[in-house]
Write a structure and sequence with these properties.
By secondary structure, this protein is mainly α. The protein is built from eight helices and two strands, in the order E-E-H-H-H-H-H-H-H-H. A hairpin with a 5-residue loop joins strand 1 and strand 2.
């Protein structure tokens, strides 16, 4: 909610319209704090597991997928491609800060939500110098699904059996999903962002 029609109030107190966000509306502090507070699986897990921690897992899996691809590129191209790809992975769910999340089985029934989510994600990725499509998007999708499988195996009673998900690499089993509290996830997310982003940033959302 917000005092302005059609707007929400972010952690920093900024009032923004989620459907008309501009780059000036986007603060990494807002994104970091919110994602660390939002729980995966709509909260249907025994212990809080944040979207921020999920994003770090997707970033790690993306890095594993990238290893053989980056090795075939020139050194200058390697650094740029890798950095942009990992930023894309880290921020792939950042739109949830502004429009929330809809669980996959319901997305087909809410026809306007997915286009809004795609548009908002592109705005966020462009703001922070990440990739918005092409090969990187496909790699991040693979990593996202692999993360979902790992999370299900570690956090859900079904262990993800019958979900139709595949690992991203042959040794995904080395990624054990152990939920951390919101503050630890927040720090991890922001530190990873600082490593990948080229401009100074502040964690404090103000």
């Amino acid at each position: 909610m917000s005092s302005k029609p059609g707007c929400i109030e972010t952690v920093s107190g900024l009032e923004v319209n989620p459907l008309t966000l501009s780059p000036d509306d986007l603060r990494i502090g807002d994104i970091t704090v919110s994602l660390s507070n939002i729980c995966r699986f709509n909260g249907s897990v025994a212990i809080h597991y944040s979207v921020a921690q999920h994003s770090l897992l997707v970033c790690d899996l993306t890095a594993a997928i990238l290893e053989p691809l980056v090795a075939r590129q020139l050194r200058a191209q390697q650094e740029t491609f890798r950095r942009q790809a990992l930023l894309t992975a880290l921020l792939h769910d950042a739109a949830e800060v502004y429009i929330g999340d809809v669980m996959r089985p319901l997305q087909g029934f809410l026809k306007q939500w997915k286009p809004a989510e795609i548009m908002l994600t592109r705005t966020i990725l462009r703001r922070f110098g990440a990739q918005t499509g092409g090969e990187v998007a496909g790699i991040v999708d693979i990593a996202d699904n692999a993360a979902l499988l790992l999370e299900a195996q570690n956090l859900k009673r079904s262990r993800g059996i019958g979900w139709g998900l595949l690992p991203a690499t042959a040794d995904d089993s080395r990624y054990w999903v152990e939920p951390v509290d919101a503050l630890e996830a927040r720090a991890g997310f922001f530190n990873r962002f600082q490593e990948l982003f080229k401009e100074p940033a502040r964690l404090r959302a103000d």
